[in-house]
Hints:
Elements: H1 9-26, H2 28-44, H3 73-95, H4 106-121, E1 134-136, H5 142-151, H6 157-161, H7 194-211, E2 222-227, H8 234-237, H9 240-245, E3 251-257, H10 272-283, E4 286-290, H11 297-301, H12 307-314, H13 317-325, H14 328-334, H15 340-345, H16 351-356, H17 364-376, E5 382-387, H18 412-422, H19 444-455, H20 479-482, H21 493-506, E6 514-518, H22 529-534, E7 536-537, E8 557-558, E9 564-565, H23 570-581, H24 583-586, E10 592-598, H25 603-615, E11 621-625, H26 644-649, E12 654-657, H27 662-678, E13 684-688, H28 704-709, E14 712-713, E15 729-734, H29 738-753, E16 756-761, H30 765-781, H31 791-796, E17 803-806, H32 811-815, E18 825-828, H33 839-845, H34 850-863, H35 869-878
Parallel strand pairs: 1-2, 2-3, 3-5, 4-5, 6-9, 6-10, 7-8, 10-11, 11-13, 12-13, 15-16, 15-17, 17-18
Antiparallel strand pairs: 14-16
Helix pairs in contact: 1-2, 3-4, 3-5, 3-19, 4-5, 4-17, 7-23, 21-27, 23-25, 29-34, 34-35
Bound molecules: thiamine diphosphate (TPP) and magnesium ion (MG).
Amino acid sequence: xxxxxxxxxxxxxxWVDALDAxxxxxxxxxxxxxxxxxxxxxxxxxxxxxxxANTAYINxxxxxxxxRLPGDAAIExxxxxxxxxxxxxxxxxxxxxxxxxxGHIASFASAATLYDVGFNHFWRAPxxxxxxxxxxxxxxxxxxxxxxxxxxxxxxxAQLDNFRQEVDGKGIASYPHPWLMPDFWQFPTVSMxxxxxxxxxxxRFLRYLEGRGLAKTAERxxxxxxxxGEMDEPESMGAIGMAxxxxxxxxxxxxxxxxxxxxxxxxxxxxIIQELEADFRGAGWNVIKVIWGSYWDPLLAxxxxxxxxxxxxxxxxxEYQKFKSRDGAYVREHFFGKYPELKARVASMSDEDxxxxxxxxxxxxxxxxxxxxxxxxxxxxxxxxxxxxKGYGMGAVGxxxxxxxxxxxxxxxxxxxxxxxxxxxxxxxxxxxxPYYRPPEGSPEMKYLxxxxxxxxxxxxxxxxxxxxLEAPKLEAFKPVLDATAEGREISTTMAFxxxxxxxxxxxxxxRNVVPIVPDESxxxxxxxxxxxxxxxxxxxxxxxPEDSDQLMFYKEDKNGQILQEGINEPGAMxxxxxxxxxxxxxxxxxxxxxxxxSMFGLQRTGDLVWASGDIRARGFLLGGTAGRTTLNGEGLQxxxxxxxxxxxVIPNCVSYDPTFGYEVAVIVQDGLRRMxxxxxxxxxxxxxxxxxxxxxxxxxxAREGILKGMYRLxxxxxxxxxxxxxxxxxxxxxxxxxxEVIAAAELLKSDWGVTADVWSCPSFTELRRDGMAAARxxxxxxxxxxxxxxxxxxxxxxxxxxxxxxxxxxxxxxxIREFVPRRYKVLGTDGFGRSDSRDNLRRFFEVNRHYVAVxxxxxxxxxxxxxxxxxxxxxxxxGIDPEKPAPWTV
Length: 891
Ligand SMILES: Cc1ncc(C[n+]2csc(CCOP(=O)(O)OP(=O)(O)O)c2C)c(N)n1
Ligand SMILES: [Mg+2]
């Protein structure tokens, strides 16, 4: 528009008047139609009309179309002021303890009204007739949420006083953490960006449940609160296109545009609201801007020449921030004062009046109108861009100041001003204590508060810990995978898993609850057979005849499809998994998600979401497919995963396995179902699956317990040393595909060197370590009692000879159990960058193959004096190993 000048104002006037008439007589839809016709006509004639994603820098909803806030605005103001006070009090009181606890004041101060209007009028708690709305609250606004819970009598003063002192179980959590407050918080949001993307997939998952007839979710809404600075995280906006494509009108984003992040302005030189408007409009969202509060309405109504709007549009956020960090006189001089005519318009207003010109995000009426419009909007998700002031009410110590975010101390004088500004009945002589305030029970305020919440179904947030249990199938149900593969048949653990999934999907108790999730890799894992069988979920079904419709396994999209096909989008798929994995809590409908991905693009790519999955108490299965640094051989450095098992091991409630045989996978999945779905334990599973084909033995008798605990001796090799047996002996450990190299090494040791080896399959070094830690800790704390033995010691204690482990993961993985191995322990692993080659070459390169295992075993025996060192040199030579080969992690 900047390059366009009004060369004929009279003609312009005529067109505008004509439009006014259409608007008045025939309404906005007709006006919209005519404008689109005109634009289309101009474009077809060849005129260049660049797309403009922005609307004017004013509220989207004009005052005359605002839905009016019901209820008593004055009481709501009082209640909101009290919430503000208590939120500040809990942080300041915590700050006095000198425990270096931290806490935030400025963020909630800017967001208080945005939350308040939602709590008072919109967000429904779960009841018999309504499943409840799901609200993702901004993490560091938690003091405000606690302050409201305190007012409602859900938290005590003592709990507020223990904010951020969680260790002794009396305090309340710094941020929303379901792990730490499982009856209260539903969604971990404080790692910025994870809230918005989770909310999008949550809204879509509600649709999925409805589409499949598993729950009634049509009335439920997902609300997500986020900071304007947070919008720079790729996760915040990365999935907004999906929300629009799916027409998620059950989703509302509220972006608190206080123009500041932690260090300073979000867009000092621009306008974050306009930038976000363009992004969201372009993506197909309904955008509602709430920029100016009601005090601006008369000024805007009189802005016939557009000068005020011009000034509003040209000022950048850095200026807007500064205006609110100063005072009315400053705003008069520097905002209005830029144009004498504009300054004249506010001449009759006092500096206080000018200061009172409020921002939309602090005006409950404007916010109510925006929320009401969002609730009614159909066919699109809505984003509300609300302009606020960071540190609102903090005055000189923080309001609009760059240091606001981390301001957690206020001198008594600032506290006094805050009290006066919000009219809190705390006497002067009590001010230094910063006492909490709750109006007496039975007061009009308390009655009002309780009535509002009870009409919305009860308090929020609240979290359901358990839902109905699902009965896990018995292990025998998986017989086809428990038995040895037929003579001459070779399969991979991925194929074994797909068979297990097929069995589960047919199970009458749990089949319908299974949610297979894939990020465009079904064919990689041989799962394309499921497309036809289950259908791929699509809100609109299938509007086209698929190219392969004449095939048995055609690409079938369906309104009640069971598969979630997320495209090349691991974070989105992870969020779908989280939504399904917490459906027991959010929807009272337990679901069993199986999300199968390229293992390298799982824990490494989306690790923060996986961490949040632990926090959120997710229950489900993550399958890292084509795993193993040397097993996924032809792909190379960015694909070949040798550390996801280490990454998963750091999540306390993630149970990880690296199985070798189909029966191990079956035992693990069956027990996972039992623990998560039947016993409702808050754990989730990470299982690596490989694409190497080989024959599989059947489930050895008595092996089940050892598989689950993490190690068991392979029966063909397992013999206790006979009395008087003096021959050298070693214990060989392995997992995943490399266990087969270990088995081969045992044969080499026997045939080439006369050494006997017991071979142990170790499906979980991580579970072994946890068991060992528990034993060691118990022993530390019970010095005078009989020491407990770790499971590793129980297994290896009665055996003979040094211990050698080899896996397809970095050494850290098998090294986890070193403390519990009762004898000499040597570990091989795939430290270094992967590369493309044959499996044999890669296993030689990374020094984890049968030859290296044999050499390491001989070396260990030599160190024990069981064989001469010369034997090791001989073995190196025999197996063609170049001792001067560079270390694999250096090249
Ligand atoms: C992924 C991540 N990075 C950094 C932080 C640290 N952090 C917490 S709040 C914050 C600033 C938030 O600014 P904004 O999103 O604008 O929210 P406001 O407090 O202004 O409402 C930062 C950097 C975090 N919590 N998560
Ligand atoms: Mg901000």
